[in-house]
Amino acid sequence: MVRELLLLALYSGKKIKNKKIKFLTKPQNLEVLEGEKAEFFCSVSKEAITVQWLRGDTVLEAGDKYDIISDGKKRTLVVKDSILGDAGKYTVMVGEAKATARLTVIGKLYFINVQVHILLIITPLKDQEVNEGQEIIFNCEVNKEGAKEKWYKNDEAIFDSAKYIIVQKDLVYTLRIRDAQLKDQATYTISLSNKRGEHAKSSAALTINQFGVFILTEEDLRIIEPLEDIETMEKKTVTFWCKVNRLNATLKWTKNGEEITFNKRILYKIDKYKHSLIIKDCGFVDEGEYTVTAGQDKSVAELLITEAPADFIEHLRDQTVTEFDDAVFTCQLSKEKASVRWYRNGREIKEGKKYQFEKDGNLHRLIIKDCRLDDECEYSCGVDDRKSRARLFVEGMCRLNRIYIYEAPGADVIFMAELNKDGVEVKWLRNNMIIVQGDKHQMMSEGKVHRLQVCEIKPRDQGEYRFIAKDKEARAKLELAGKLLAFVSLTMFLFSPKSEAPEIFLDVKLLAGLTVKAGTKIELPAKVTGKPEPQVTWTKADKILRPDDRITIETKPNHSTVTITDSKRSDSGTYIIEAVNSSGRQKINIHILSSTDKPGPPAAFDVSEITNESCLLTWNPPRDDGGSKITNYVLEKRATDSEIWHKLSSTIKDTKFRATNLTPHKEYVFRVSAENMYGIGEPAQCNPPGPPTGLKPTEVTKDSVTLTWNEPDEDGGSPITGYWVERYDPEQDKWIKLAEGVPTTEHFLKGLMEKQEYSFRVRAVNKAGESEPSEPSDPVLCKERLCEYCFRMCCYCKYTVSVFKKAPCLAISVIFDGITACFTFFLYFTDPPSPPRWLEVINITKNTADLKWTVPEKDGGSPITNYIVEKRDVRRKGWQTVDTTVKDTKYTVSPLTEGSLYVFRVAAENAIGQSDYFVAKDPDCKNKFFLFQICITEKKNRVWQLSSNIILTFTGNPTIDLKTRDIVVVKGQKLRIPIPFRAVPSPTITWHKDGKELKAGDRTTMKSDYTSALLEVIDSVHADAGVYTITLENKLASTTGSVNVKVIGN
Asked: Domain Fibronectin type-III spans what residues (predicted)?
């Protein structure tokens, strides 16, 4: 059972934009029998709105005659005990909008001899006259449920098929006939019967008007399949769709009352009767109410967007610095507001003098000051459950370890220096003059150790000696004193290059902006200075530039150049060069404008209406027309077994074309290109999708595994229709297909072999074919997990129990009445832990909440490794993960939005897996049942082998351990009341609400086991509020407990 805690943050004071109130659905005409109640329904665009109901000019009020009900956006008028005088027109008004409906009351006199239980047809079939190609719908409504229908065409039975679609919903029976032809002209009959032997029948004639023979009257445009609400995650693609009754009609799409402008991100697609609104790369700005209008008909649906977790766009890179320099690690995230943590060898580091954190938009930096050799290790940046890792390499400064003098003047002196690397070219200098190998000076290098020997020292050999390795150096002095006694100063000088902030120098022409002709080469050279050497990054439109077939980036000391060959109009924009080192950073913008060019590829290229010899090709104009009007389109085809493209037409003016004279049972690939005065652009074609990503196995058992993966980054221009799952067979050294047509990004595989290792991979499929395979999963070993088991004595047990554990075996000795019972058994457990208990909010601010909970009752046989904290805004359906690495039993959730209402939940995780989000406290003492065949031994070692089994049970009066007596639930959510108890023998359990006994029903379920009881009520309403009482009774005693339930929300 999930225990959900509600948090109402302080109201933020933001103004709410006033939105015009309107009807989402209007009341319909009603026909009722005298004495029955009549119910008019409507729904409005806002919940907190009062409507007025009128009969004629009289305003109606709730009372003995009328009930007026408000439930969310739904409004209801109930006319009780209808009489003939109640017939007439009823009006509902909201703001300036109003709607009317008529009530017809049928007097009982007409049905004096009719019994209520007789099966009657309320709405019979109606004769219809339609044109060829249209869709026909026959509807028949009856007065009671349970009837079975049969449909006939001229007394010949017809069945559900592609031509005839037979549907029943509640009391309405529907026959839909697709693509009406002259041969469909007939009399259609529905015959109904039920188990009581009652029968009813209705018939209607269908007349088909042939084109060219009759004067055609076009049917009013209407929606036959409405839009549906959608909830998705940001950055995803969603599709609203509906169906209308007329081919290739044009519909009007609006969002929150404003007409939608279509572009490369928001597309409108028509496929015969189906109309789709496709929204790519969804953001919170796309949330709202979407309406499609077909003639006088409308359909409304709502789009809800949940926040996507932050991810890394640019990962950390390994850094190499010199000792005593600063190191800078940089990463880029997909969200600016993401909160990151920095780690050193997996342990979190805090900001201070040594470590400094910087944030610039979605760029995050870790600066490590004054690096030393012991700073060399792995550093990582973490956001949510994702991490980016890189290593720091520190090059030590060279140092003179020892300086030797063997004799007095006339003897030799040896200088020795040790580096941290082999094979480095070095130089020795005396008084800034390079020393050359010879009889006087001998230089030796052995790996990291370098020596200079000065032979037979004399006064002229005095001075400063320098050792240089690349740009690092060390110094020492040699002096002679007194009677040519030689000594060397032990002082060593280590020098580090002077730090300088980065500077970027560009040509004046680049600073003023660059205009290029499409197809030419773009060069962006820059001079970059700074010490230490700056790290240079090029970006365009917030995306880091990376080398590809057209783009090359050459960065070397003091210079960085971006070169773009065969430039396109899409290369226009602002390019940013940024240089960063430990002393600072600099950014400069370069504006590039590409002139006219050939057009881009057409958009939304699709294939439909496929037959043996033809298909319909449709597309949208290119997103980029190249700066010149599109003159025509060029369409080509090729067979999949050929590489040759054949032109179908090069003079197409419209954005659709029917390809004919195709070879039956042969596969084709089509492509279309747009043409303007500058030439023919890139073609658009339907390609196979990219490979799925993120494949990983979960929930591994001895004979099964669950695979999950992510959708491909590219769908190839056609929606993904399914996935293939493959397994690697090492004996045959090939991949074997296990499943195809998998509709989701998750698949459960069973029937695997225990102690066998498996690898899996996945392919995505669209209309063009299957993708390349995903990266293979990590090897999976199917096995049963063994876990430690802890035996606890029940406080009611009066016998002595001894436990001897040696995994995976458990030996238990029970002594009672001088007799010892010994038994040994094997334990195999694969359970995750039970849920954390008693989650509560202990402190609230305007944008944070402090949570606290207690550890789970059971750890599942494996230690708890971490807790998972999630939050949910009550206005949204989806849960958001806050943190998956919580080690403590408390946590501060931030940031929260001021003025919002939140729900929180916590789960525990061990080596086996994650617990449920369930809050319940098991008692310390539980009824324990063990069933063993035992060997009983007396003190005199006489032995009996029992053929029967023994059951050890511990008894106790029923007790209820309620930790809370108040539960708050949001309207529409599931109400769950968990009751932990102790009772042996097992008790009889009954539930009451406000004194009336509860029974299981459509919305209410009751569950229980040896230690707990659970009452669940789905889709809670305000009427579910009240006092719920549970009664436990066994042969020893009985007890009761009560919980007060409140239902909030409109």
From this structure: 601-689, 691-785, 832-928
8 Å CB contact between 494 and 474: yes
Between CA 640 and CA 647, with CA 644 as vertex, the angle to 5 degrees is 105
Give CA–CA dist 881/907, Å, rounded: 11
Residue 813: which pLDDT band, with cuts at 50, 70 and 90? very low
Share in percent of the chain as helix, strand, coil (round to 5): 5, 50, 45
Scan for tokens 């057009």, then name that residue.
Answer: 599
The structure tokens listed for 18 are: 């006033």
Cβ pair 6, 839 in contact under 8 A: no
Query: If you write DSSP's letter for every residue of 530-555 in order, what string do you get?
Result: EESPPEEEEEETTEE----SSEEEEE
Query: Residue 703 region, left (φ>0) first, then alpha (ψ -120 to 50), else beta?
Result: alpha
Cα–Cα distances in angstroms (integers) from residue 975 to residues 3, 46, 434, 504, 1044, in the given order: 9, 25, 87, 63, 12
The amino acid occupying position 881 is T
What pairs with residue 708 in β-bridges? 696, 746
Residue 990, both tokens: 């009954």
Confirm if 233 and 306 have CB atoms less than 8 A apart: yes
Determine the Cα–Cα distance for residues 1005 and 755; give it in Å rounded to an integer: 40
DSSP β-bridge partners for residue 639: 668
Sheet architecture: strand order including 121-123: 121-123, 136-142, 172-177, 164-169
Strand order in the sheet with 363-368: 312-314, 327-333, 363-368, 355-360
pLDDT tens per residue across span 899-941: 778 888 999 988 777 888 854 233 222 333 333 333 333 322 2
Supply the DSSP symbol for 768: T
Token pair belonging to 431: 């008084």
510 by DSSP, 3-state: which?
A: helix
Query: Is the pLDDT assigned to residue 616 strictly greater than 70?
Result: yes
> Are 451 and 443 within 8 A, CB to CB?
yes
Residue of 59 and 810 predicted with greater confidence: 59
Residues near 66 by beta carbon (within 8 Å), at least 6 away in sequence: 53, 60, 77, 78, 79, 80
**For strand 463-469 and strand 426-430, is the pairing parallel, antiparallel, or unpaired?**
antiparallel
Q: Are 34 and 83 spatial neighbours (Cβ–Cβ below 8 Å)? A: yes
Q: What would the two tokens of residue 336 be? A: 């600016």
Exposed e or buried b per residue across 336-366, where buried means at least 16 C-beta atoms within 10 angstroms of its C-beta? eebebebbbeeeebeeeeeeebeeeebbbbb
- 3 state DSSP class of 466: strand
Q: How far is CA 743 from CA 378, 687, 740, in A?
A: 41, 19, 9
- Count other C-beta atoms under 10 Å from residue 188's C-beta: 23
pTM score of the predicted model: 0.27
Given this model, what pLDDT does residue 675 score? 92
- Rg of the chain on CA atoms, in Å: 40
